[in-house]
Amino acid sequence: MSIVSIVAREILDSRGNPTVEVDLRTEKGLFRAAVPSGASTGIYEALELRDGDKSRYKGKAQFGANAILGVSLAICKAGAAEKDVPLYRHIADLAGNTELVLPVPAFNVINGGSHAGNKLAMQEFMVLPVGAESFKEALRIGSELYHTLKGVIQEKYGQDATNVGDEGGFAPNILENSEALDLLQTAIEKAGFTDKVVVGMDVAASEFYRDGKYDLDFKSPPDAERHISAEELADIYQGFVNNYPVVSIEDPFDQDDWEGWSRLTARVGIQVVGDDLTVTNPKRIEKAAEERACNCLLLKVNQIGSVTEAIQACKLAQANGWGVMVSHRSGETEDTFIADLVVGLCTGQIKTGAPCRSERLAKYNQLMRSVSCITVPAVNHKVRSRVIFSQTSVETTCGVRQGATMVTM
């Protein structure tokens, strides 16, 4: 494959901030890729450079690792075209995978933290349709549940409480994180999906870590009574697991609070996901594995800077017995690359926002297109989840264990 030309341009992401788009041409045609950016970013991520020119976009024009990634994504798309195969098949070949797996989507339906202007400290409250028979059904369940949740929130807090955050989830102005879980549980029951849907969270605790404590009201003036220790925060998580169908918690502690991470992972017996902790970086993944700090990697290609390195990070996590969840960023574009990435890497899990806002739905809709194109045994047309239970890796096409029960798909 010979590259005829590469052209980069500045476009806007879903938050109205500038980002990089790359057009790469070969004899096979034009291949375009756009790069996302995050709001709650880990300090160990690949460096995203912004030019600081206050006269343009308040100093947020950018280049650096994000420019490298744009080229990498475009080359990967061109490589698939050169082989005359779908992008997900090309990615599977690069990763050494023969089968293809459609993922369980984690719909972020309530936004807080750095993604919303409400009082919620914890950033994402997600629903996972692990009981779906297919990705098509999973998407339908997510959509129906989203609209049911809207009605539940309106009824309790009023019409203006259904404004949405950066990722399309509702952002009611509530303070207590358990209240968000109550809303989810009510909506799940009202929609009739109790046996099909479980709950995941992205706490993004580094965003409210202050001087060795965690501030659960960090958007308000400092209040020492709301500052708690890692042990107290772990007790809150245990309460969530005991009282709600929570099966996955992401970034429960600060990115350098290794002791807090390790203690929680040993304690709760659910999936504990590393994002700011691991930043898709092999060195951080290796340390997390040694410390037994988590048991699942959140895979974000722009954290490490290239498709090749992202695949390597995924394989390293899987070699350590971890799950892998492919993820978008809060500042997204209409690029659908991660929808093909999750199928090709066979991770079985993806989070890319609520079933709302076109930059989020672009990924879900691309997965729907993949369903109609994949010509493999029917079992792989089902969604597949890979969830950690009691420190035992459970990969299944038919459900996810909770306690002594199995939720059947």
TrEMBL record:
InterPro entries: Enolase, Enolase-like_C_sf, Enolase-like_N, Enolase_C, Enolase_CS, Enolase_N. Substrate binds at H115, E124, E250, D275, S327, H328, R329, S330, K351. Residues 3-91 form the Enolase N-terminal domain. GO terms for molecular function: magnesium ion binding; phosphopyruvate hydratase activity. The active site is at E167 (proton donor), K300 (proton acceptor). Residues 99-388 form the Enolase C-terminal TIM barrel domain. Keywords: Glycolysis, Lyase, Magnesium, Metal-binding. GO terms for cellular component: phosphopyruvate hydratase complex. Its EC number is 4.2.1.11. Pathway: Carbohydrate degradation; glycolysis; pyruvate from D-glyceraldehyde 3-phosphate: step 4/5. SUPFAM superfamilies: Enolase C-terminal domain-like, Enolase N-terminal domain-like. It is an enzyme of class 4 (lyase). PROSITE patterns: ENOLASE. Mg(2+) is required for catalysis and for stabilizing the dimer. Mg(2+) binds at D202, E250, D275. GO terms for biological process: glycolytic process. Its cofactor is Mg(2+). Pfam families: Enolase_C, Enolase_N. Belongs to the enolase family. This is phosphopyruvate hydratase. It comes from Scophthalmus maximus (Turbot). The lineage of its organism: Eukaryota, Metazoa, Chordata, Craniata, Vertebrata. The gene is LOC118292013.
